[in-house]
Amino acid sequence: MSLTAETLDPVAADAAFSGVVTVHTGDERTFTRAYGFAHRALQVANTPETRFGIASGGKTFTALAVLRLVDDGVLRLDDPVRGVLGDDLPLIDDAVTVEHLLAHTSGIGDYLDESADWQADDYVLTRPVHELDRTEAFLPMLDGHPQSFPPGERFSYCNGGYVVLALVAERASGQGYHDLVEQLVCAPAGLTRTGFPRLDALPGDVALGYLDADGDRCNVLHLPVRATGDGGIVTSADDLHTFWLALTAGRIVPPELVAEMTRPRHDVPDEGMRYGLGLWLHASGPQLVLEGYDAGASFRSTHDPRTGTTVSVLGNTSEGAWPVIGAVAHVVD
To answer: What is this structure's pTM?
Structure first.
């Protein structure tokens, strides 16, 4: 069944959705709808070219930067991260490896525990947000969380683990995290509109992230001013499709590492999906998924490598995208 404006518009209206919905197949964008405002106070409408924060969708970019370092011989999947961390974060088990962190099986205590009673508009950061502009600045928030279970025992989604991955990548390579992602992931993929602007200095084509369905309160006090490995990248619908085509063609990491990323490792019933290595996977099919949720961001992009079809929902409110995501799922299911 195809997607039409007549079927989608009522769902978007009921959800007070603000954002963009696109379908791409091959080299063509075959469906586009834009709703709501990128800047409510100035009545600047969202357009198909608007860029959005994708929250935890950025974890896959972190994973790919790390896997590029693995491919280059700078890191190995079975490297214990203690050798890079040194005396920092002493509560992380010495047996935790790069692969454990990528697969969410490290068992390290999380600075942002999503299994707790957490709401996207809570003030969860324990450091002033303006200080959180580089990975090393996150160390005080990562410290002091006891190990939850032995490394490799089970899957447990961990935001802090991806900040640790960013730190490991920086120290192993001698380059900053943002530069690594831009050079090792965005450049070879041909992503021209993806990057890490400061939250307090967003370019005009980036949507503000709103806490609620109405009102002008945005997320600037809820998120790091320039986030790191667990989220914080902004992108556009067209760049997302470009990303998927580059990934599946082996232009970011070689095919053998793409196969590692897309090999199902864990069923995650609470999410209705499986997990690979830095990447969500459809519960039963070959579709690949990026997903993100945070203050002022709700997002999913699903790619079917069999048909080259991508369906993306990029929202700039905390909750509004989820009904829309449900309404478009059939396009790639």
So the answer is: 0.97
